[in-house]
Structure formats: C-alpha cells, structure tokens
Write a structure and sequence with these properties.
CATH topology: TIM Barrel
Number of helices: 7
CATH class: Alpha Beta
Bound molecules: D-xylitol-5-phosphate, zinc ion
Mean pLDDT: 96
C-alpha cells in the first residue's frame, strides 16, 4: 500500500477542553504530538448551541504553531470567511447544508489564502458534495449530529468516508477525508480503514488521562486501521 494511504493526522477539538485553561490545553496538544487543532464555531442557528468566534481563534493562534482547522457550524459561512482567516484559521470548513452558496464559499476561502473544507451532516448523502470534491482540500464526514461533543459515533456514515476516498483517488487529489464526532481508540480503527486520514477527537483527547498518552493510543489505533484496510 502506498505510504500516502497511511497518513494519520490527529486534530484535538478544543470544545472538549477546559475553557478556563485553554492555553494549557493548546500547549498539551502541541507537546503531545497533535497535527492540528480543531475549533468548533457554532452560531445557535445552524446548530442548537453557541461556542465562540474569531476572537478565540486569534487567541489560540497566538499560542501555537499548529495548523488551525476551523469548523464553521454557522448559517452564513461566506460572511465570516475573511474574519476567520484574519484570526488565523488555516483550513476553513463549512457545511454544504448551510445557506451560503458552496461554490462561492470555496472561492472566497481560497481568495483569502486558506484551505477549504466541505462538511456533511450524518443525514446528508455524499452525492450532495460530489461535484465539489475537485475544489476542496478537505471533505469532512460528520459521525455525530453537529452541535455537541461527547456523543456516540454513528458507524452508518462510514460508507460516505469510503465514497469520499474513492472519489478523491479517482481525481488524483491529495485532499484529506476527515471524520468528526465520537472518535475513540475503538471507532478510529474502522474510520481509518474506510479511508479517513484526518481525525477530530474531543472527549477522547481531553479527559483524565494525559493528552500525550491519549494521542499516542489514537495514533497507534488509526495506523492499525489504515494498514488493515483492503483498498
Ligand atoms: C461536534 C463537533 C466536534 C466535537 C467532537 O459538533 O463538530 O468537533 O467537538 O467531540 P467528540 O470527539 O467528543 O465527539
Ligand atoms: Zn467539529
């Protein structure tokens, strides 16, 4: 199997960290071997929860060299692309179910110099983003209903991970297939086997166990899943 298929990138989601000690969480993730940080932006409309905006992204930017993966769970991502880029987002991931025009949103993300990701909720079929696959650097398959950390993984989304991986391979694209929601050292195995290479991990990283140890376990399991895959 080509080495590219064994790519494993772990992105701790700060939503599960202690907001009162966010700087410590950022440092622990970076020191513990995280490949990126995932920041969940929620507007109380697209999802039934509120989190944070560009000011917090910018505070995190000032404290780490890790790439920042900004997950926009908001109704009008197009309106905020520039603000999140200015705040320091490296990849801006928007939902195809949101109100902004997807093509225009991708163009705007590239215009401001960020990488573009497109996300789908558990109930959205892969066909909804198939024609966008050649224009993005990341496809995010949600494995829980967006809005809250600590939910149970939904294995029924794995065929969409496979479909995304197949499509990107057919296009000769190096874009990442990302999975977000309920990722643990168990659920990461079939996710990697299905072709995901970028794993968002909230509660499985920020808990009572040291962050570095959690990341080590997750990485080991993901590599095992990727190796076992018959693709
Ligand atoms: C959910 C967010 C996720 C969440 C992941 O809406 O998009 O990034 O923080 O948390 P866990 O890994 O605990 O499901
Ligand atoms: Zn997320």
């Amino acid at each position: 199997m080509p080495e590219a298929d064994l790519r494993v990138r772990l992105a701790p989601s700060l939503l599960s960290a202690d907001f009162g000690a966010l700087g410590d969480a950022v440092r622990a993730a970076e020191a513990g071997g995280a490949d990126a940080l995932h920041l969940d932006v929620m507007d109380g409309h697209f999802v039934p929860n509120l989190s944070f905006g560009p000011a917090l992204v910018s505070a995190v930017r000032a404290r780490t060299r890790l790439p920042l993966d900004v997950h926009l769970m908001i109704e009008e991502p197009l309106r905020y692309v520039e603000a999140f880029r200015t705040a320091g987002g490296d990849t801006l991931v928007f939902h195809v179910e949101a109100r902004s025009d997807p093509e225009a949103t991708i163009r705007e993300i590239h215009r401001v110099g960020a990488a573009a990701g497109v996300a789908i909720r558990p109930a959205t079929p892969f066909s909804a983003i198939e024609t966008l696959a050649d224009r993005v650097e990341q496809i995010l398959v949600m494995s829980v209903e967006p809005g809250f950390s600590g939910q149970k993984f939904r294995p029924e989304v794995l065929p969409k991970v496979e479909a995304a991986r197949r499509r990107l391979r057919a296009l000769g694209s190096r874009a990442e297939v990302s999975i977000d929601g309920g990722i643990t050292s168990e659920t990461i195995v079939p996710s990697a086997a299905a072709g995901a290479s970028f794993f968002v991990c909230g509660n499985s990283v920020f808990n009572d166990v040291p962050v570095a140890e959690n990341l080590r376990r997750l990485r080991e399991a993901a590599v095992r899943g990727a190796r076992d895959a018959v693709r």
